[in-house]
Amino acid sequence: MKEVQAFLTGRIWLKEQTPFPLPVIEEFIRKGFISPHTGIQSNQNSSSKKTKSSNCRRCGNKQLTAFQCAKCNGTCLYCRQCIQMGRISSCSELITWSGPSKVHEVNHCFTWSGTLTSLQAKASNELLISVQRNQSHLIYAVCGAGKTELLYPSIFDALQRGLRVCVATPRTDVVLELAPRFQQVFPQTIIHALYGGSPDYSDFAQLILATTHQLLRFEKAFDVVFVDEADAFPYTVDKSLQFAVQKAKKKSAAVHTITATPSDELLSQADNISLISQRFHGFPLPVPRFVGLWNYKKHMYKDQLPQKLANWTQQCLQNDQPFLIFFPTIDLMKCALPLFQQIHVDISAVHAEDPERKEKVLKLRRKKVCGLLTTTILERGITIPNVQVAVVGADEKIFTSSALIQISGRVGRSVDFPSGDLVFFHHGISLEMDKAKATIIEHNTNREVL
Ligand SMILES: [Zn+2]
Ligand SMILES: [Zn+2]
Fold first, then answer.
1. The pLDDT value given to residue 45
2. Tens digit of pLDDT for each residue in 110-153?
3. CA 130 to ligand 1 center in whole angstroms
4. Residue 201 placed within a domain
5. Is residue 125 located within the same domain as residue 86?
């Protein structure tokens, strides 16, 4: 009983895919401890009684596909959107726990020995008050402000009150980065780190770190939810991920968000906001330089590296400084790579589907490669001491002001190298470039009046 309860509490799972034999599950259903649900829900549309709409119970998707189902020998609808987690069709059953509630652990240990800057401490206290009052809170903290640490007191407080806590993020990298840090800070707490391809856990965790995608597997589970990098792709464009967060939390639970580049929507949704306009080390944010790089695409596709870009790269090499060069498309990056490798053979490139992505970033950090060409995939979440950054085609549509601010935030993060070169190479200055620069300067001005 305890094992089934631990596994299913707060989860929504395909009946056939639990770690327990089917007869055990059936027995619990008979006893009323487990509730079965149809995988595809049909809703009678209230506005016009004739139209019936259906949606996937797990991900909310309404675009369902009909197929000839071998399992029930009929025509079933199935959901394509969440199919990697096991196919949900009209005849599949999802189960949730409805037996006795699990009593949560209240003895947790908090072993963090670092200190917060006065700005971090202020925001951290404000967040704690919001969490205790169950009001939504936005932490608007510039890149390099040190935002993870200021969550610790709120998380510890909630755990000790026996609440179940989730830290979600659209990005797998962030989950991987946070998991060991959290385990060190909360050594006695069972923590699950969930992302595509993570290990299967069958026990109960009171603290969960997860990609927003993995939250589809939960229902009414969490008392407190934090969404880190709440404005990152694909969370902002993928409605099912926002649905996942809403479904995974208990109905009354507030959602707290953390980002350096909040959208207007995030700013207007939060009950309370804390702004941290200064980095933890106190130095100003690097301000981008705009440099014209006319017809750079044409040159690159003709196997010529624009001179200004070549010079910039050579300068980094001479100064023995690691560098990142951001490209608007994989295609242009792949075309430019051999041109850069003529300058130095160790220059490499990464993109989202690159299986060696993590290794390459690690190599740059350890100075095993001198520089990386990259797409926007590295715009967030990485820290490389003394890194110099260039954006090629900063005026391209993909480089929104948020993306440019995040990219800029890679420079000068460590206290030993608090500044660095930051160039936006362009073919005509865009409004988004201006907006990014103005926002960075504004944060620096706010910092000076502190
Ligand atoms: Zn689905
Ligand atoms: Zn079927």
1. 60
2. 999 999 999 999 999 999 999 999 999 999 999 999 999 999 99
3. 33
4. yes
5. no
For residue 291, what are the CA distances in angstroms to 1, 19, 224, 433, 441? 66, 58, 45, 12, 18
Q: How far is the CA of 83 from the centre of ligand 2 (A)?
A: 15
User: Residue 321 in contact with residue 387, Cβ under 8 Å?
Assistant: yes
Average pLDDT over residues 396-405: 96
Q: What percentage of the chain exceeds 90 in pLDDT?
A: 86
| Cβ neighbour number for residue 72 with a 10 Å cutoff | 11
Question: For the chain, how many residues are written?
Answer: 450
What tokens does 39 get? 């995988």
Domain ranges, residue 135: 118-276
Look at residues 215, 243, 276 and tell me which one is the last residue of a structural domain. Answer: 276
Residues 195-205, mean pLDDT to the nearest whole number: 92
Rounded to whole angstroms, the Cα distance separating 158 from 223 reads 9
Distance 311 CA to ligand 2 centre (A): 63
Cβ atoms within 10 Å, residue 428: 9
Task: Quote the ligand 1 centre to 83 CA distance (angstroms).
Answer: 7
346 shares a domain with 233: no
63 C-alpha vs ligand 2 centroid, how far in Å?
17
Q: Of the bound ligands, which one is closest to the alpha carbon of residue 81?
A: 1
Do 336 and 436 belong together in one domain?
yes
Look up the CATH number of the domain holding residue 377. 3.40.50.300
Looking at the chain, the whole-number percentage of residues with pLDDT higher than 70 is 98
Measured in Å, residue 78 CA sits from the centre of ligand 2 at 9
Same domain as 219, residue 256? yes
Global pTM reads 0.91
Which ligand lies nearest the alpha carbon of 65? 1
Model pLDDT for residues 5-64, shown as the tens digit of each residue? 999 999 999 999 999 999 999 999 999 999 999 999 988 665 555 557 899 999 999 999
**Ligand lying closest to the C-alpha of residue 39:** 1
**55 C-alpha vs ligand 1 centroid, how far in Å?**
8
Q: How far is ligand 2, taken at its centre, from the CA of residue 247, in Å?
A: 25
Tell me: do 368 and 304 sit in the same domain.
yes
Tell me the CA–centroid distance for residue 93 and ligand 2, in Å.
10
> What's the gap in Å between 105 CA and the centre of ligand 1?
32
Question: For residue 379, which of 355, 354, 361 has the smallest C-alpha distance?
Answer: 361
Q: What is the mean pLDDT of residues 425-437?
A: 98
How far, in Å, CA of 126 to CA of 147, rounded?
13
pLDDT band at 327 (very low <50, low <70, confident <90, very high): very high
Is the domain of 31 the same as that of 137? no
